[in-house]
Specification:
Elements (H helix, E strand, L loop, with lengths): L2 H12 L17 E6 L4 E6 L9 H12 L7 E6 L12 H7 L4
Parallel strand pairs: 2-3
Antiparallel strand pairs: 1-2
Length: 104
């Protein structure tokens, strides 16, 4: 199992998970803080949401789990939603900012 290749594949799958409200993927929004992979194939995704108390947190969590499980050798997925460091628009990619009409 090549963890670096797995991580790249996981990030590619996560680019298919859109924030339901903004309709931009969670990677370009800068919501994914870390992806770690154990030798046994346990994947831990550390991420945040654009707003605390987001009513779609459960939906996004489920979408992340389903996306990560598409990658070969993934045995289990844990999504840890954190609020520190807090998300802000500076974490967004240039693509996301353009799509949302945000200028720096």
């Amino acid at each position: 199992m090549n963890k670096e290749k797995m991580k790249d594949q996981i990030m590619e799958e996560l680019e298919e998970v859109n924030d339901p409200e903004l309709n931009i993927d969670i990677v370009n929004l800068g919501l994914v803080y870390d992806v770690s992979i154990s030798d046994e194939g346990q994947v831990d995704v550390t991420m945040t949401l654009t707003a605390m108390g987001c009513p779609l947190a459960g939906t996004i969590n489920d979408m992340v789990v389903q996306a990560v499980k598409k990658v070969d050798d993934v045995k289990d997925v844990n999504v840890d939603i954190v609020w520190n460091p807090p998300w802000d628009k500076s974490r967004m990619s240039r693509y996301a900012k353009i799509a949302l009409g945000i200028t720096d």
